[in-house]
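Me: I hope this is not a bother. Any chance you could explain this protein sequence and its structure tokens? It all follows right here:
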Amino acid sequence: MDKSVFLEDLDAFAYREALASGEAIVLIPVGSLEQHGPHLPLGTDTILSTHFAEGVARGLGALVAQPIAYGYKSQQKSGGGNHLSGTTSLDGATLIGVARNLVKSFLNQGVRHVVFMNGHFENYQFLYEGIDLALDELGIKPGAEQSVLLLSYWDFVSQDTLTQVYPDGFPGWDIEHGGVLETSLMLHLEPARVNMDRLVDGPAAVLPRFDRLPVVPERTPATGCLSSAAGSSAAKGELLYGQVVGDLAVDLANELVRDPLPAVVPA
């Protein structure tokens, strides 16, 4: 059995040994508790970001911290809206505070690099602010050896992969909520948590180019999904996961590891 990369499985002395190398990298998955339609679980964002963190950690020799399992408020144009049952959110100040505290704690312990692996669109800028505040409080200036990286896993999906996953054309990241990407990844990584019998195939959401508050509930499709998951498959999920983990591991190694991985050479 492969050795666990999860901090929760390590004892304190094994963790101290990892820190003593001076090269420790800790990945923090970040997700949400958010409705993803009738066919996917509420924890989809957290589940996926944790799987991506694990895959990348194995390639880097890094460790994975426990995830931030609640996210910033779901927005109607990217997650259906915070008004939908099951979506249970943090306000911005709270998420900023969580990120700030985790950065300070890990860097003060001697972790060399912290990587936030985001899986919920609305989190990004609040994580950024928390990281920035923490580095300022620690006095870590540009050019320092210690650092924090922030990324969203979908930014590493290649154009070639998108073409294969969406042969009829990619609908756009703004409405890829509960759709083919997340459903395919879940079918590959956690098939027992997906109920394809409950999938509702319908047209993609048509939303205005502005945000209206309070939201107009009927603008969100009744399913809560912003695009159809019809056409999802475990094979597409395997392609997505393998390509993203491979590219992420190489990019992060080149950025953070003294002896980086070789570049991936296409077959």
